[in-house]
Amino acid sequence: MSDEPKQMLMPDYIRDVSKVGLKIKLIQDADAIGETAKVYDEWRAASGRTQMPGILKCFGYRPDFLRQVMQFSNTVHFSEGHLSRRNKEMIASYVSYLNRCPY
Amino acid sequence: MDESSTRPVPKIEVIEDADATGAAAEAYDYWRASSGRTRVPGILKSLSARPDFLKQAVDFSNTIQFSDGHLSRRHKEMIGTYVSFLNRCPYCLDSHALFLKMQGATDHTVTALMEGNLDKAELTGAERALMRYVEIVTEGAYRSTPEDVQKLRDAGWKEEQIAEAVYIIALFAMFNRIANAFGVPVQNYMAMGRMTP
Predict the structure, then answer these.
(1) How far apart, in whole angstroms, are the C-alpha atoms of residue A36 and residue A76?
(2) What is the mean pLDDT of chain A?
């Protein structure tokens, strides 16, 4: 066994998962109306970005819940806590590998 | 055997009601005020390391689970019970089976779902299709296909109901893992036929 780290490869199933594409219809930026449009706008204002990330658009059918998801994600994940942000992202990357979530 | 040797031992320490001070005590009181109950359930005590997150969890659980939405509360509890069976979470299974019963499901159906026996449960065709989808997403969401979702549409479920079902399935994936990782003791709701005060 060599001490050289092995080259990281995207396993086949990750590619297969990505290939399937959208299964449930998302409320896209351009189609958002009412409360959904309002929450999308709040996210744009807070992040300084223009296009809603897909994971947040998944919650577009319940904008009240989407707003809470953004809040608790900031509280517990996108900030330092008892764990460093770095260790949190380490957990998130490995869990996403284990759950086969290419996104 | 005396009772202490059979009582399940929590795996991770939590702050008990009587020991809570500061932000944790405030978060526990926040739950007591919102629920009208007094004894903080184990699943919420599991969040006591982050009282700010605990309060948010109380709020988002009320928003998405403990209320009618695109799906009825009853269907949400049906999903919650079945996911908790699939994830082998005795704490969540016990409490949400009681909630399902309180939503009007028969003992027969509640028991069947707790055993994961869909054939025995009294389900409509649409509910049966929904439970089959719950299974697919819980056992590996990445393996779900556009055809699986189409079957739900064909059974009469609307896009926003399918979306909400996914939120509920994911919510239970989260709480099942927290309860099982902490080793939260079962509250025996089903044996008592009611919640703790």
Answers:
(1) 23
(2) 90
How far is the alpha carbon of B137 from chain A, nearest alpha carbon, in Å?
Answer: 11
pLDDT in tens, A40-95: 999 999 999 999 999 999 999 999 999 999 999 999 999 999 999 999 999 999 99
- Interchain CB distance below 8 Å, B56 and A13: no
SS3 state of residue B11: coil
φ/ψ (deg, to 5) at B85:
-65, -50
Q: Which residues of B touch A100 (CB under 8 A)?
A: 140, 142
- Cβ-defined contact of B50 to A58 (cutoff 8 Å): no
Tell me the ipTM for this assembly. Answer: 0.92
Interval B109-148: pLDDT, tens = 999 999 999 999 999 999 999 999 999 999 999 999 999 9
Instruction: Decide if A58 touches B, using CB distance below 8 A.
Output: yes
Nearest CA in chain A to B148: A23
Report how far residue A67's alpha carbon sits from residue B60's, in angstroms, rounded to the nearest whole number: 9
* pTM score of the predicted model: 0.92
| A66 HSE (CA, 13 A, CB side) | 23
Pick from B65, B18, B23, B16: nearest CA to B41: B16
Interface check A61 vs B, CB under 8 A: yes
Cα–Cα distances in Å, from A28 out to A33, A57, B178? 10, 7, 32
- A42 CB neighbour count, 10 Å cutoff: 14
H/E run at residue B157: none
CA distances from B49 to A28, A89, B168 (A): 36, 19, 24
Closest partner residue to A68 among B60, B164, B166, by Cβ? B60
